Amino acid sequence: LLLDEAEKAISAIVKYSEGKDIICQCYEGVSRSSATAWAISEYIGQKYDYENDPHYQPNRFVYETLSKLLK
After folding, report:
1. Which of 8, 55, 67 is nearest to 31 (CA)?
2. For residue 55, which of 23, 33, 22 has the smallest C-alpha distance?
3. Which of 39, 34, 41, 25 lies closest to 56 in space, CA to CA?
4. Among the four residues 16, 21, 31, 53, which has the most C-beta atoms within 10 Å?
5. pLDDT tens, 30-71?
6. Confidence of residue 1 (pLDDT cuts 50, 70, 90)
7. Do 66 and 35 contact (CB within 8 A), yes or no?
């Protein structure tokens, strides 16, 4: 995840997160998308345990980068 990609994602999250459904999808749909969903869910106040759900394998670097930018 490059900084400009993260900033574009943050811009879209802030713009569209209120009262809207957000679909997170990366090419493979495994680690980046679940990390992005995790950061978004915390940003909008919906807690979900992405780390311990066997269906997800969130990329920790992507999650931490987006979370820092959302604060």
Report:
1. 55
2. 33
3. 34
4. 31
5. 788 889 889 888 888 888 888 889 988 999 999 999 888 888
6. low
7. yes
Residue 26, classed as helix, strand or coil, is coil
What is the C-alpha to C-alpha distance for residues 46 and 27, in angstroms, rounded to an integer? 25
The span from the CA of 57 to the CA of 51, in Å, is 7
Spell out the residues 6+ positions from residue 69 whose beta carbon is closer than 8 angstroms to its own: 6, 7, 10
Q: Comparing C-alpha atoms, which of 41, 35, 27 is closest to residue 6?
A: 35
Helices (H), 1-71: 3-16, 32-43, 60-70
The contacts of residue 40 (CB under 8 Å, 6+ apart) are 13, 17, 22, 24, 66
pLDDT digits 0-9 by tens, 9-28: 778 777 876 777 777 777 77
